[in-house]
TrEMBL record, chains A, B:
Its main location: cytoplasm. CDD domains: OAT. The record marks 109-110 as: Involved in the stabilization of negative charge on the oxyanion by the formation of the oxyanion hole. This is Arginine biosynthesis bifunctional protein ArgJ. It catalyses: L-glutamate + acetyl-CoA = N-acetyl-L-glutamate + CoA + H(+); N(2)-acetyl-L-ornithine + L-glutamate = N-acetyl-L-glutamate + L-ornithine. Keywords: Acyltransferase, Amino-acid biosynthesis, Arginine biosynthesis, Autocatalytic cleavage, Cytoplasm, Multifunctional enzyme, Transferase.
């Protein structure tokens, strides 16, 4: 249930003094091998944080010895000085681990637009290196040190009967949108896999997990998902079994982010079927998931399917207004574009809301996870600089 | 300052019993000629309300004798029965005005997905016809009868020294997004203009006024802007002068909608310059104007330019992260993609916020009007079924 669950990994989380308050804010994850294959997926935002620029470069080698992560400062919009800080961070870890800086990825999350306190970061790397452990407590310490507005650490794991395992943590509570959430995710495995196999599995898993989580439509500058393989189990996994397990683990982590999102009072699944293609199903589901009027209605436990139909109608997908069906928590409220039942028939008192939309056009289906738009979201994001 | 300001128009607003509470909810605007040229622009939502389907059809003739508008029910997602109600509404007005139903446009706003009480609407049309007046009070009564969550009626007028005038009203407070707001707008003029000239002037004006207002990114099923010309002044206006006056009037009405938007505490102008094209400037400005994290930060009077830079970065426009400048209320906080001043230097205590974004790529410029995302917006839209 953590990045230290697979054999060959150590982790640590320490207080480096990057953010105010006595909270851990720097994590280190080390792959002790024997192999060091790795893959990564990054934000598609054109404004990329310095650690993203650094880590994308590093991942070109398909090889990682370690990852340094910090919370409290995104090191984004920080220019050459910010990039030098990311580089210096990797250099420091490399020196301690006796490897090259090019084998160390760096991830940051927090406020955009101010310089990271470099000395604090470098001191934190040294402290984390001294604190490295291979047990579950060490994995949890790392998962805890990267949290920002998250209220709980988010870990997941899978032990395969074939003898290999996967573990991971993630963070992210706001600025969560397509092309990944504002999130940092580290997944480890002791399976024997090379970098191209890891890359293929990771892209396949991210496409239907993190990329289908959309809390507030705001794409971050820092999104990073890293997958590190130590090969320490000595087992070459069945590629399909590995990809399936990785996908399930990423979905598990995505669901944990949904449940801990800023201001969440409803965990909403928007499921679209009958679209012309899967991509169009994603487009419709995402448009509904982002619609402020749908999100505020669900916050108010109001099964306002008319707002859902309106959002379907302005999506960039093919839609026939006379074929739209809307079912909320199992009660069909709209059939063929008109009312099918009194809206009060749908019960939204619980925390989970399933919105099912039928388009009646084809076989395309997809679902997006989102949350409601609540007073808590407004409060957190108007009062907290991040 | 109203639709009755131009010669040749009468208007009325009455209580038809369409919505609960004793409030006027049906308006009638009549063009007494001698000419009856007209133009209209409608929502681009694929889910169009019955009155939009009806009025689009009617406008194909370039001619309108009257417009019936109601609040309290959108007559959207109401199928053939809803369309018959829109048709019957036009028939009723036509009977009273001794014209054809095809000369009467219909507009509705309110809850989506329930049938309009047809008898109440037809009774309301008769009552409004009996109450028609040509004075400012009659124009105000019509402007008042179409309000939903709006708190004030919104009217504008222009008397041209050349002898013609324009007047108009609008409504709209939420579900306000590109391709027009959830809004109904009626503009009248006594200038002598034919339908093609009106159409060209209206499209040109809407493109830079209502289409540049984006309160919550939610495109309505009912958006309608109608322009009616009576020719009663006997004056053929200079086409450019007329278009300019119409554009200014539409901008005035759009600004009134911004100032009265649901939950507004800040009136925000997002102005983009240096984009590759005007369209790309609109794209960037709209992306920033819709970003929930930018909107909540401004609600909190926090000049969080990092969130603005992140939104610029995920817009669908060409962006060079190292050329982005951000200035808030006159204080440059970001230059070339990095901090240029302490954010506290920008004062956001007032109700007006000007966000200026420079992209340094070309001559494309545009601005979008929006508002903050406040507790009031969440409250209104979670508690009110509309």
């Amino acid at each position: 249930m953590s990045v230290t669950q697979p054999k060959g990994f150590r982790a640590a989380g320490v207080e480096a003094g990057i953010r105010t308050g006595e909270r851990p804010d720097l994590a280190l994850v080390v792959n002790d091998g024997p192999q060091h294959a790795a893959a990564g997926v990054f934000t598609r935002n054109k404004v990329k944080a310095a650690p993203v620029l650094w880590s994308e470069q590093v991942l070109a080698t398909g090889r990682l010895r370690a990852v340094v992560l910090n919370a409290g400062n995104a090191n984004a919009c920080t220019g050459p000085e910010g990039f030098q800080t990311a580089h210096a961070t990797a250099e420091k870890a490399a020196e301690l681990l006796e490897c090259g800086a090019v084998e160390v990825a760096v991830c940051s999350t927090g406020l955009i637009g101010s310089q990271l306190p470099r000395d604090n970061v470098l001191g934190g790397v040294a402290a984390a290196h001294a604190a490295l452990g291979a047990d579950a407590a060490a994995g949890l310490a790392a998962a805890t040190a990267v949290l920002t507005t998250d209220t709980v650490p988010k870990e997941a794991g899978h032990a395969d009967p074939a003898g290999w395992s996967i573990g991971g943590f993630t963070k992210g509570a706001g600025m969560i949108a397509p092309s990944m959430a504002t999130m940092l995710t580290v997944v480890t495995t002791d399976a024997v896999l090379d970098a191209p196999a890891l890359d293929a599995a990771l892209r396949s898993a991210v496409r239907v997990s993190f990329d289908r989580l959309d809390i507030d439509g705001c794409m971050s500058t820092n999104d990073t998902v890293l997958l590190l393989a130590s090969g320490a189990s000595g087992v070459e996994p069945d590629p399909e079994a590995f990809t399936a397990a990785l996908r399930d683990l990423c979905k598990d982590l995505a669901r944990q982010m949904q449940a801990d999102a800023e201001g969440v009072t409803k965990r909403i699944t928007v499921r679209v079927a009958g679209a012309a293609t899967e991509d169009e199903a994603v487009t419709v589901a995402r448009t509904v998931a982002r619609d402020s009027l749908v999100k505020t209605a669900l916050f108010g436990s109001d099964p306002n399917w008319g707002r859902i139909a309106a959002a379907v109608g302005y999506s960039d997908a093919q839609v026939d207004p006379d074929r739209i069906d809307v079912t909320i928590n199992g009660v069909q409220l709209c059939r063929g574009g008109v009312a099918a039942a009194d809206r009060s028939a749908a019960d939204l008192k619980g925390a989970d809301v399933l919105v099912e939309i039928g388009l009646g056009l084809g076989d395309g289906a997809a679902e997006i996870l989102t949350t409601d738009l609540s007073h808590g979201y407004v409060e957190e994001n108007s009062a907290y600089s991040s």
